[in-house]
């Protein structure tokens, strides 16, 4: 079911790691766009260094600007809808999280540095981007290989 951003219908459309759309989200989008009278549909995809939560924030910041921009141009947001594409992207847990400066999506900049996590913790954080038991076993092995040892010491 469509959410609302600034009075406009908004859908999320997810894709898996093989580029296949979430069939339920796609079916909902295809059924609801005409039913809601949407004549102009804007789509936006997040970048490679963000997760779902960050993508959702980006879409809200971006699409909240649309009615005002259309109004300044003498147009209406009636009939306008939006889609936020979500795909398996991952921000490393030890990288600073982008934040909105000045409340505008175009003003995204870098926040204060995130606390540095050790390599095994970073690998553990990857499990949500690489689901499944087989992948979890590979990631567990990677974390074990990266763990500090008395011979190597910490990273």
Q: Helical element count?
A: 5
Q: Globular, elongated, flat, extended or rod-shaped: what is the shape?
A: elongated
User: What percent strand?
Assistant: 15-25%
SSE series: EEHEHHEEEHH
What does this 3D model show about the protein?
This protein is α/β, with parallel strands linked by helices. It has helices at residues 23-35, 52-63, 66-72, 119-125, 133-146, and strands spanning 3-5, 8-14, 40-45, 80-86, 98-100, 108-110. Helix 4 (119-125) runs antiparallel to helix 5 (133-146).
Quick structural summary:
The protein has 155 residues and is an alpha/beta fold. It folds into two domains: 3-110, no CATH class; 117-148. The protein is 34% helix and 19% strand.
Q: Which key terms come to mind for this protein?
A:
155 residues; alpha/beta; 2 domains; two-stranded antiparallel ribbon; 5 helices; 6 strands; elongated
Task: Chart the SSEs and their pairings.
Layout: E1 3-5, E2 8-14, H1 23-35, E3 40-45, H2 52-63, H3 66-72, E4 80-86, E5 98-100, E6 108-110, H4 119-125, H5 133-146
Parallel strand pairs: 2-4, 3-4
Antiparallel strand pairs: 1-2, 5-6
Helix pairs in contact: 4-5
């Amino acid at each position: 079911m469509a959410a609302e951003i600034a009075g406009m219908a908004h859908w999320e459309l997810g894709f898996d790691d093989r580029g296949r759309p979430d069939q339920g989200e796609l079916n909902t989008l295809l059924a609801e766009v005409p039913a809601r009278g949407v004549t102009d549909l804007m789509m936006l995809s997040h970048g490679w260094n963000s997760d779902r939560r960050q993508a959702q924030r980006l879409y809200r910041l971006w699409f909240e600007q649309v009615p005002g921009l259309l109004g300044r141009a003498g147009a209406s947001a009636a009939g306008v809808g939006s889609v936020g594409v979500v795909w398996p992207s991952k921000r490393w847990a030890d990288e600073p999280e982008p934040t909105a400066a000045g409340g505008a999506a175009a003003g995204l900049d870098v926040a204060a540095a995130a606390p540095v996590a050790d390599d095994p913790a970073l690998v553990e954080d990857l499990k949500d981007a690489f689901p499944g038991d087989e992948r979890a076993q590979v990631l567990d092995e990677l974390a074990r290989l990266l763990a500090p040892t008395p011979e190597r010491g910490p990273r």
